[in-house]
From TrEMBL:
CDD domains xref list: HTH_XRE (cd00093)
A molecular-function term among this protein's GO annotations: DNA binding
Name under which the protein is recorded: HTH cro/C1-type domain-containing protein
Domain of life: Bacteria
Domain HTH cro/C1-type, first and last residues per copy: 9-70
Length: 124
């Protein structure tokens, strides 16, 4: 049985009239992996697929759909709520909101995160 994330991803792709290969080209994800996400199962290992924030960001961009919604559907509620709280808080400066948006868009690789952490530590 498909989960809500998978159903949503498939519906978004079909609404945009995109093939799996077209989405793969846009997102630089493997088309087979995208289909596994839609089915909520790795068809080779039969295990549940758990997408990263980076993967969800790429799909959100491709489908012009809010990342926060995909994060919630993927069970990453805490991350989604933290992003929403910051981005919707009128007391948070636009510069800080821009920084959060950049963090949301960056990949989840340890190398990228280490660079950001290094820069932030240097600014303390």
């Amino acid at each position: 049985m498909q989960n809500e994330l998978g159903k949503t991803l498939e519906a978004l792709r079909k609404a945009k009239k995109l093939s799996l290969r077209a989405v793969a080209d846009i997102t630089e994800l493997n088309f087979s992996y995208i289909r596994d996400l839609e089915l909520n199962v790795n068809r080779s290992s039969k295990k549940t697929v758990k997408p990263t924030t980076d993967t969800l960001q790429k799909l959100a961009t491709a489908y012009d759909y809010p990342l926060e919604n995909l994060l919630k559907l993927a069970g990453q509620v805490e991350v989604a709520n933290a992003f929403e709280k910051i981005l919707n808080d009128p007391d948070v400066s636009e510069k800080k909101k821009e920084a959060v948006r950049i963090l949301m868009e960056m990949d989840d690789s340890d190398e990228s995160l280490d660079r950001v952490i290094g820069i932030l530590n240097a600014l303390k």
